[in-house]
Every structure is written in structure tokens, then in C-alpha cells.
């Protein structure tokens, strides 16, 4: 089956309508909304605490590296749960599929462990340096 350009017409119309609605709404709120600029309104507000000092204090890059690594390895663990649920199902039904799944998880864990060893060897998790 070959698709014709006219087959995409409903999608294009819906896309144009959505973009038009967004643009119209932004223009309407900007032009109709109140414009009251006061010193109190323009002041920085953070959790009800008065701002003191400069917000641009230097923070160690190691903090961000640890945070990114935590997210990375945490997301890897999220992939393991559905795998485990499906693995239990396939162990009971097909040993060949279960064996292949197990080998794939071993490769996945090897790659994960390789990344972790790399992070350790680079000394990213050493805070004293």
C-alpha cells in the first residue's frame, strides 16, 4: 500500500490547529493580561526566604558528576525490573528464550560494570582530590 500526500492532510491540519492555538493563546495572554511591575513583584522569591548574597556561588563539578552517575545507574536498575518479570515468565514456558534473555542480561550487566569500573579508575567518586 502506497501512501498519498492527501493521507497526511488530517495530521497536518491538526498540527497547524495546535500551533495556531498555542500562538493565539500566548498573544492573547500577553496583550490582555495586567502589566503591573512593582519592586516587590520583580524581587526574587525562593520558598518565602529573603534572598541574601549572590546566587552564582561556585559548586564543585564532582557534585554534578555524582548526581549524573546516580541517575545513570538508577535508570539502569529500572530496566532490570521488567526484565526480571519477563524472565520468570519465560523460564516457565521456554528454556531457549530464557537462556537468551539471561545472556543478554549478562552482557547488560557487564557493560554496566565496565562503566562503573571506569568511573572508579578515573577517581570521580573520590571527594578528597
Automatic annotation (TrEMBL):
Subcellular location field: Cell membrane; Membrane
Enzyme Commission no:
7.1.1.-
Q: How does it sit in the membrane?
A: Multi-pass membrane protein
Tell me a Gene Ontology molecular-function term this record carries: NADH dehydrogenase (ubiquinone) activity
- Please provide the record's keywords in A-Z order: Cell membrane, Membrane, NAD, Quinone, Translocase, Transmembrane, Transmembrane helix, Transport
GO (cellular component) term, any one: plasma membrane
Q: What does this protein do?
A: NDH-1 shuttles electrons from NADH, via FMN and iron-sulfur (Fe-S) centers, to quinones in the respiratory chain. The immediate electron acceptor for the enzyme in this species is believed to be a menaquinone. Couples the redox reaction to proton translocation (for every two electrons transferred, four hydrogen ions are translocated across the cytoplasmic membrane), and thus conserves the redox energy in a proton gradient.
Q: What is this protein called?
A: NADH-quinone oxidoreductase subunit A
Q: What gene does the UniProt entry assign to this protein?
A: nuoA
Amino acid at each position: 500500500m502506497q501512501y498519498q500526500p492527501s493521507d497526511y492532510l488530517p495530521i497536518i491540519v491538526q498540527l497547524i490547529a495546535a500551533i495556531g492555538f498555542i500562538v493565539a493563546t500566548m498573544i492573547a495572554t500577553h496583550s490582555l493580561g495586567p502589566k503591573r511591575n512593582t519592586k516587590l513583584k520583580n524581587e526574587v522569591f525562593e520558598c518565602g526566604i529573603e534572598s541574601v548574597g549572590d546566587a552564582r556561588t561556585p559548586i564543585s563539578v564532582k557534585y554534578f558528576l555524582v548526581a549524573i552517575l546516580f541517575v545513570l545507574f538508577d535508570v539502569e536498575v529500572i530496566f532490570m525490573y521488567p526484565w526480571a518479570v519477563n524472565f520468570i515468565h519465560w523460564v516457565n514456558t521456554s528454556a531457549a528464550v530464557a537462556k537468551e534473555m539471561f545472556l543478554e542480561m549478562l552482557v547488560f550487566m557487564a557493560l554496566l560494570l565496565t562503566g562503573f569500573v571506569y568511573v572508579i579508575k578515573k577517581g570521580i567518586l573520590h571527594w578528597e582530590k
